[in-house]
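Our platform keeps sequence and structure together, in a single record for each protein. Nothing more is needed to write down the fold, since each code stands for a local backbone conformation. An entry from our holdings is shown next, in its original layout:
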Amino acid sequence: MGSYVVVVFVRPLAAGTRFGRGEWPLHATLLRFDAAGPPELVRRLNAGAVAQVRRGTVLVGPDDRFGRGGSVPVSLLEEAETLSILHRELHAALTKDPDAAISLPGPRHVLDGYRPHVSHTTGRLRRGERFEVAEAALVDMRPGGDSRYREVLAVYLLDDDGRRPGKT
């Protein structure tokens, strides 16, 4: 079974980029999931979902803490409709195809429980900053079965009035 997450990197990364588990570049998580289905199907479903969404920007809001006991410092994102739409489109695409055999986290993290944010990882954003949401990336949480690393499997460009293709 594959373990994946779809994110928007604050500073885009190319497919094939690999980094350590504790070295995540700044990103907004869209959806975390496991899939028993073939990786190519997972890539195709993500591509189809992202292609439905127009690019936009988000505004960094106040700090908060997520995770067990509030152990993860985050910056909440405001004016983040693009991220919320991406989250819903990805959820719909992945859960409607039984061949993907998707397993999702609990309801606190999906649909009405989704809260757009950027975790403070290898840096942080400041309240009032903005960043562009122009692409989403599919990240393998255990490339080659090794949970010490993460690897960007695919990058999907958001709709830009038809001026760009949907996948790189």
Summary: Strands lie at 2-9, 18-20, 27-35, 56-66, 72-78, 102-103, 117-119, 130-133, 135-140, 149-157. DSSP finds two helices and ten strands in the chain.
